[in-house]
């Protein structure tokens, strides 16, 4: 606990792999009294009434019904990142609590990661690195090759802010861009990146050399890519995922990679994270894995923190909340 006159904000912790960014603590303490989850659990009768916001960093702390009921002064849950699958939005709304996230802060670095993974998988960068440093390597074969990116067809599933920024980057590589999305983009937006809308996901899968997942995880998109969808893809195709691990049936993906149904995969996200150390995905040469690092740049993480602070302060002062998450009548995100 810090300054008693500042509004209380619940955080997962101030250190360790699941704590908030240590570089941000001083900035946060200018505005808030930070209450760690451990402090709260040890004395929730003291700290519960003081907490007016929950600051979620890396998906923690988990927001449960029990937690919500023990925070009578709670006004807002401010969650870093764009994904909302870790939050029960209907439950939170039923408690009269607002939600905000940081979609703009993560879109550019995540798009960068999407292209980095695509390029790494296409040109076999990780395999090449291993070959180059292997102690028994005596020469480099002129027949060791990867896939061409320039002029290839990229199918983007999910054309929100991240997907669109990926399309902007892919245009610079002279890629042919297809996309599938819940809502079609405006014609001028399509023309700006040279993207073609595919109403049929199957059509996109059949035509694409690279399939890139940048869609949110919802009950409707869980296991969006399974055995059937993988079998529709070209045997030379590469699957890239910067969305969520549960968008893909991982057992079906392992089988597809082992049997040559598709050429390779590059994944920034899996389920669970990290994978068990004996998981078959960790043993495949045609898989590139990164540790859910799409937004992991110093600049993006600082912007995320600043966006969360702005949303919390707006909520506490009764002002319009930047990046407020609103629910439609059917409980989908507006």
TrEMBL record:
The keyword Cell division does not apply. One of its GO terms (cellular component) is cytosol. Pfam families: 2-Hacid_dh (PF00389), 2-Hacid_dh_C (PF02826). Gene3D superfamilies: NAD(P)-binding Rossmann-like Domain. The keyword Transferase does not apply. CDD domains: GDH. Residues 115-294 form the D-isomer specific 2-hydroxyacid dehydrogenase NAD-binding domain. Residues 23-325 form the D-isomer specific 2-hydroxyacid dehydrogenase catalytic domain. Keywords: Oxidoreductase. GO terms for molecular function: glyoxylate reductase (NADPH) activity; hydroxypyruvate reductase [NAD(P)H] activity; NAD binding. PANTHER family: 2-HYDROXYACID DEHYDROGENASE-RELATED, GLYOXYLATE REDUCTASE 1. Belongs to the D-isomer specific 2-hydroxyacid dehydrogenase family. This is Glyoxylate reductase/hydroxypyruvate reductase. It comes from Panthera pardus. The lineage of its organism: Eukaryota, Metazoa, Chordata, Craniata, Vertebrata.
């Amino acid at each position: 606990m810090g300054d008693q006159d500042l509004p209380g904000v619940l955080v997962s912790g101030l250190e360790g792999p699941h704590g908030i960014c240590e570089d941000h603590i001083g900035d946060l303490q200018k505005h808030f009294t930070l209450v760690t989850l451990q402090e709260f659990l040890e004395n929730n009768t003291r700290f519960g009434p003081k907490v007016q916001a929950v600051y979620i960093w890396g998906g923690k702390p988990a927001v449960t019904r029990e937690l919500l009921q023990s925070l009578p002064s709670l006004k807002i849950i401010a969650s870093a990142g764009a994904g909302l699958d870790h939050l029960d939005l209907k439950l939170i709304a039923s408690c009269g609590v607002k939600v905000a996230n940081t979609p703009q802060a993560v879109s550019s670095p995540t798009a960068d990661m999407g292209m980095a993974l695509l390029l790494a998988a296409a040109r076999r960068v990780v395999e090449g690195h291993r070959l180059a440093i292997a102690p028994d390597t005596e020469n480099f074969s002129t027949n060791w090759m990867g896939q061409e990116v320039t002029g290839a067809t990229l199918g983007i599933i999910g054309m929100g802010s991240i997907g669109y920024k990926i399309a902007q980057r892919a245009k610079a590589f002279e890629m042919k861009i297809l996309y599938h999305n819940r809502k079609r983009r405006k014609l001028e937006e399509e023309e700006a990146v040279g993207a073609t809308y595919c109403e049929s996901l199957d059509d996109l899968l059949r035509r694409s050399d690279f399939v890139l997942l940048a869609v949110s995880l919802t009950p409707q998109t869980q296991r969006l890519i399974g055995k059937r969808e993988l079998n529709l893809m070209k045997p030379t195709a590469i699957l890239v995922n910067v969305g969520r691990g549960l968008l893909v049936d991982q057992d079906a993906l392992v089988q597809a990679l082992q049997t040559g149904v598709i050429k390779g995969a590059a994944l920034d996200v899996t389920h669970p994270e990290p994978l068990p150390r004996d998981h078959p995905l960790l043993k495949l040469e045609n898989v590139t894995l990164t540790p859910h690092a799409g937004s992991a740049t110093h600049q993006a993480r600082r912007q995320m923190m600043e966006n969360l602070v702005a949303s919390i302060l707006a909520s506490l002062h009764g002002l319009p909340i930047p990046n407020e998450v609103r629910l439609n009548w059917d409980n989908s995100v507006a």
